């Protein structure tokens, strides 16, 4: 694991939290995302030899490249598998990829670098079916070594389910202490649906919707809980 000074770790986390806060708002109402990326670029210029700085900037760029496709013209949520990849910002993707490659050459993996590498694998896929889930699972295995949090474990479980099937994903998810975290219930619901457990999937969608913040995610989950098979 690449060790960071505490002050720098705090700065990187603060920038990323500012970015994720901006992600949750309509693009027309906030410039938090662009400001976070600007700060990331400045920090990269000041610390060109710090791979976690490059990793943070790469993660924000690769995430930002998809921002315009996450909701439709009515503001409804569009899942990653359904997004128009032709509309992703290729300039940001190429810049993010170059930063990820620079991190890999240093061979000093850290949490932001590994998250950026995962985002880069998603950006590589021409469509959702072509996603290299084996590589993503391998990266999550590495991320669990340097950042063994329940949320990382949940994301790893989703990748595991894509590689080995919904039963494997559910087996991991159901061990996690995340009962008050709406993505936990949303991930359970999707795998339960794939397994054919329709009533339990509908209940999990409802629980996810109850916990989700107001906005596109809650609206989507509420809709799934109402029209998913087994919801009646």
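Q: What amino acid sequence fits the structure above?
A:
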């Amino acid at each position: 694991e690449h060790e960071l000074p505490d002050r720098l770790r705090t700065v990187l986390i603060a920038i990323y939290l500012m970015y994720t806060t901006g992600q949750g708002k309509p693009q027309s109402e906030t410039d938090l995302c662009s400001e976070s990326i600007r700060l990331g670029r400045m920090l990269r210029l000041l610390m060109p030899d710090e791979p976690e700085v490059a990793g943070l900037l790469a993660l924000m760029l690769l995430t930002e490249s998809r921002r315009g496709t996450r909701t439709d013209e009515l503001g409804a949520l569009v899942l990653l598998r359904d997004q128009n990849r032709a509309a992703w910002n290729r300039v940001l993707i190429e810049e993010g990829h170059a930063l990820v490659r620079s991190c890999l050459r240093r061979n000093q993996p850290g949490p932001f670098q590994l998250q950026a590498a995962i985002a880069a694998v998603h950006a590589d896929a021409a469509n959702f079916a072509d996603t290299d889930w084996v590589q993503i699972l391998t990266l999550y295995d590495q991320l669990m070594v340097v950042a063994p949090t329940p949320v990382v474990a949940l994301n790893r479980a989703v990748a595991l389910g894509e590689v080995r099937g919904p039963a494997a994903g559910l087996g991991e998810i159901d061990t996690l202490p995340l009962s008050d975290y709406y993505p936990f219930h949303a991930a359970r619901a999707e795998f339960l649906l794939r397994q054919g457990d329709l009533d339990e999937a509908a209940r999990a969608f409802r629980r996810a919707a109850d916990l989700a913040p107001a906005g596109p995610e809650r609206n989507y989950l509420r809709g799934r809980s109402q029209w998913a098979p087994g919801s009646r």
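Q: And what stands out in the fold?
A: The CA atoms of residues 25 and 32 lie 9 Å apart.
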